[in-house]
Specification:
Blueprint: E1 4-9, E2 16-22, E3 25-29, E4 31-33, H1 46-53, E5 58-60, H2 62-67, H3 71-76, H4 80-84, E6 90-92, H5 96-100, E7 106-108, E8 113-116, E9 123-126, H6 128-138, E10 142-144, H7 156-176, E11 183-188, H8 194-207, E12 211-214, H9 223-233, E13 243-245, H10 251-259, E14 264-266, H11 269-275, E15 278-279, E16 286-287, H12 307-311, H13 314-322, H14 326-353, H15 356-367
């Protein structure tokens, strides 16, 4: 049975509703994946993620779990699902982006990447083969081919060399696969060069994967350049497979990307911003640290059904933030992730009803109303 099926699709557009079947459950798309870097979504228990946020899937980080506590320990203890107490699907990235971010601590060659741990300075090696082996040891439902995340800015020559290396690593990643109970996604690179993105797409599709991702975005290229790539290539990824936009983004980004034909998203923005006192609302971002909320009895967002909005005032949430209470981060994270998941659910419902463009335009009008 095909692990992915398109359930609904726009008649005059590219947005679509789909369904991914994994060993740990079905994922309805478009979907957002909270980032659980070290086998935990910061500030929340798995029960809160499931019951308060209604998250379908979380993302865990191969690189960080490899360094600490180690993938072999996690495998010995029953795999990442049992280790973190999460029964629903998990996607693991390949470690390529994290190695990319260690520019001063790593060296790249044809075989892989050598890098020094920022934890204790020890030297480690990641290759396509070891990345796949680590992800399979963790027991993730969706795993990613090992890639080189092309830096920005990059020359055309640098981007070409990078995507060709990623394509060779993609073939080795597929050959290294030993388990059949997961989905393996390939990653398209090419920076902001359309010709190189097309070349990377052709090379990655030729290898053949269960899903395809647009990588190398949200690395400094700016919103306009990112949207250009998303709008041109979202619908060019194979229609019969899930399409994943890595590391993006704002609520506006998600709507634009779904309209372009993409299905899956992850970003640290809702959780990181929560810890900094920034709430997403129907009418745009709200900074709870502002003095005007000192006596405000209203919820963060009257249209929101989350635990935070049902029970607490802006005045109380501001008090928690100003007092540096841990609960501030917990309640803000619940709200922000629930906001994102309600947005994705709204898109899925609109696609079922054939009303996506109206939903998108109405949301954006409200969201930008206080700019």
């Amino acid at each position: 049975m095909n692990a992915f099926q398109v359930v609904n699709k726009e008649v005059d557009g590219y947005a679509r509703r789909g369904r991914i079947t994994t060993p740990h459950g079905i994922i309805e798309t478009p979907c957002f994946m909270p980032v659980g870097t070290k086998a935990t979504v910061k500030g929340l228990t798995p029960k809160q993620l499931e019951e308060e946020v209604e998250a379908q899937i979380v993302l865990a980080n191969t690189y960080h779990l490899f360094l600490r506590p180690g993938h072999l320990l996690i495998e010995k203890l029953g795999g990442v699902h049992k280790f973190m107490g999460w029964t629903r699907p998990i996607l693991t990235d390949s470690g390529g982006f994290q190695v990319f971010s260690l520019s001063s601590l790593r060296s790249i060659d044809e075989e892989g990447v050598t890098f020094r741990s920022p934890i204790d300075g020890t030297t480690h090696r990641l290759t396509p083969e070891t990345s796949i082996a680590i992800q399979e040891s963790l027991g993730a439902d969706i795993i990613m081919a090992f890639d080189e995340c092309t830096p920005y800015p990059a020359t055309s020559k640098e981007a070409l060399d990078s995507l060709e290396l990623t394509a060779r690593w993609a073939e080795r990643s597929k050959q290294a696969r030993r388990r059949s109970d997961n989905l393996l996604f390939g990653i398209i690179q090419g920076s902001t060069f359309p010709k190189l993105r097309r070349l990377s797409l052709d090379k990655t599709v030729a290898v053949g994967f269960d899903g395809y991702a647009l990588g190398g975005l949200s690395v400094g290229e700016g919103q306009t350049a990112m949207y250009d790539v998303v709008n041109e290539f979202g619908s060019r990824l194979p229609e019969e497979a899930p399409r994943y936009l890595m590391g993006v983004g704002t609520p506006e980004d998600l709507l634009i990307a779904v309209a372009a034909g993409l299905d899956m998203f992850d970003c640290v923005m809702p959780t990181r911003n929560a810890r900094n006192g920034m709430y997403f609302t129907r009418f745009g971002p709200l900074s709870i640290k502002q003095a005007r909320f000192h006596e405000d009895q209203e919820p963060i967002d009257a249209s929101c059904d989350c635990y935070t909005c049902r029970n607490f005032s802006r005045a109380y949430l501001r008090h928690l933030f100003m007092a540096k209470e841990i609960l501030s981060s917990v309640l803000a994270t619940i709200h922000n992730l629930r906001f994102y998941h309600r947005l994705m659910a709204g898109m899925r419902e609109a696609l079922t009803c054939g009303d996506f463009q109206r939903f998108k335009n109405s949301f954006l009008v409200d969201y930008k109303s206080q700019e």
